[in-house]
Amino acid sequence: MEWHFAASTDAPLLAELNRELIVDEGHSNSMTKGELELRMRGWLSHEYRAVLFTEQGVVVAYAVFRDDGSRGVYVRQIFVVRERRRQGLGRCALRLLEDEALPKDRRIVVDVLSGNSVGRAFWSACGFDEYAVMLERLPAGARSE
Fold this sequence. Notes:
The protein is an alpha+beta fold and 145 residues long. The protein has a single domain, classed as Gcn5-related N-acetyltransferase (GNAT) (Aminopeptidase, 3-Layer(aba) Sandwich). It is 34% helix and 22% strand. Strand 2 (49-55) and strand 3 form a beta hairpin. It is globular and about 50 Å long.
């Protein structure tokens, strides 16, 4: 597997992959692909970096992260394309990210939706431990009964 830092010209691809991630993890984000592309461009032009992972020139995964200094590196998104899952690519991408793209002297922090059992199992299998649990209460009109 090879990797390279994404550029702003990769924002449409990243937005498409991000849309798949949102669906797969069961996130409530309703942004359109266009809105996701604009958000990705903003992230890449300011605080975040993105990495595209490829095999034989084909994108198989991506990651988005930022260095939060002494608080650690926050990996906001990591995603393997659907048709290539369960082949060890997520672990390989994470290992490359840690070994070659992230600062070595910082902790790594990730968020996983509580209902995303596959994501939680992946991060746990990669040596990540629960640190905090975020709770929310939706307004009365927004609750699904």
